[in-house]
Amino acid sequence: MSTAEQQRVASDAAANAHEGCALVTGASRGIGSAIARALAADGWPVAVNYRADHDAAQEVVARIDDAGGRALAVRADVTEQEQLERLFAQVEGELGRVLVLVNNAGVRADDLAISLTDSDWTRVIDTNLTGAFRATRRALGGMIRERFGRVINVASVVGPRANVGQSNYAAAKAGLIAMTKTIAVEVARRGVTVNAIAPGLIDTDMTAQLASSSKVGGELLRAVPARRAGRPDEVAACACFLASEAAGYVTGSTLYVDGGLAA
Amino acid sequence: MSTATSEEQIEKLVIESLETFGADPDLITREATFEALDIDSLDLAELSQIVHESYGVELKGSDVAEVKTVDDAVKLIAGRV
Q: Which of A145, A186, A187 sits opposite B49 (nearest CB)?
């Protein structure tokens, strides 16, 4: 093995050598759950944030525990600043600095723009975009002090692409990608990377509802070059890469995990 | 703790932080401007973080935006501690 290879292996082995933890918002199910479990498998203590489904979050924690990892379920609505602050205080107190932040919490409230209500517009923007911004703002201080940090924003192929009935969701997710780029540039020289993942049609509760409740889901699936929905663990694998030391030179990017949909 | 001692400690913290950010130690004086030291807004944001960790004091972005010299920073922090 060459010296460079030895150094790379040593670097990978030390991938989670930092004194800190990973926080995944909206981690009680679907993509968030898969990312939380995968990061735990990579050695990160993981805070499993959830808003409502306590039992599902505890199930994620139990699965991580069973696999030999360390996890903590923490309830907080990311749209509420006070709850977000309490979330960080609890996580920092029990697991250490948040060095990997996965902004995954998201909601949908679909309707054609012509009839979309203000409350459905605001709810989606608040959760999917503003919540991610506030969590990122809160986490960055500790990351720049550590000279290491990974912010991973779970965006969507919807945003870069149009999707009928999702003007609110598309605006939030496109905003998330734009925010990713600017914050990445702001903190790059402190060893902190900020990237987005843009999943396409992934087999989760959220998309199952989409596919069954409208013809949009079926149309999306037919448009996927891979001709299948992706799996949450395929998204999680990308998050683990972006969280790793090996991805230290990847920042401001959007990684599409969409079976070729956006290509 | 006397005010003079406190300000000395704060000056030490600020100078050590500036050196960590890459400022040339030979150029750091109380009168030196952050521009001359090549200290930018991210460095000042981190200095705020260090002050928070050290003294539990929150410096707002609008406070820090007014800070132009090492002396400004020391006096701002001393006024809040």
A: A145
